[in-house]
Amino acid sequence: MTTARTRETQIEVDQEVPLVRMTREFDAPPEKVFRAHVDPDLFARWAGPRSLSTRIDGWDCRTGGSYRFVQTRGDDEFGFRGTFHEVRPNELIVQTFTFEGMPDGVALEKLVFEDLGDGRTRLTGTSLVDSFADRDAFVVSGMETGAIEGYEKLDEVLATL
Q: Which domain of life is it from (predicted)?
């Protein structure tokens, strides 16, 4: 596994399995970090890089629910959709994730919200795809910028809750 460490977001690309793991700590309790992931209005405020705006087209964040959102920059639109396989308040979200520009590529994502005490949370997100080619395309797509800037925006949203 190779590791690229940025200011606060750790991104690991596994060399044995086609997955990417991102880890980030937040100065907010798990309840707030979880809420920012399941509330569509809050999610739209922080998801993705600063150069994109997020519009929620559908959001049913419960076990068995589904979602669709669109990120825009000027006339460019990028759609994403998936289903929520398991939603366990303040602990876990397991979901699928599809970029509609590559409809055959589906990632299985697991988000774990770990209480660090003192009002802090470690979020670990693991994305598993079906091939190394899809994983590598995911990595070079701008994912790192989107994750880092998105988590910076999440810090800003959490400060308002």
A: Bacteria
CATH (domain of 52): 3.30.530.20
Residue 122 lies in a domain: no
SS3 75: coil
Of residues 75, 64, 107, 111, the one with CA closest to residue 91? 111
7-22 tens-digit pLDDT: 588 999 988 999 999 9
pTM to 2 decimals? 0.91
Assess contact for 112 and 123: CB atoms under 8 A.
Answer: yes
Looking only at the bridges linking them, the beta strands covering 92-99 and 76-88 are antiparallel
Contact 52, 78 (CB under 8 A): yes
Looking at the structure of the chain, the number of domains it has is 1
Question: Phi-psi region for residue 24, left (φ > 0), alpha (ψ -120 to 50) or beta?
Answer: beta
- Domain range for 64 is 26-116+128-159
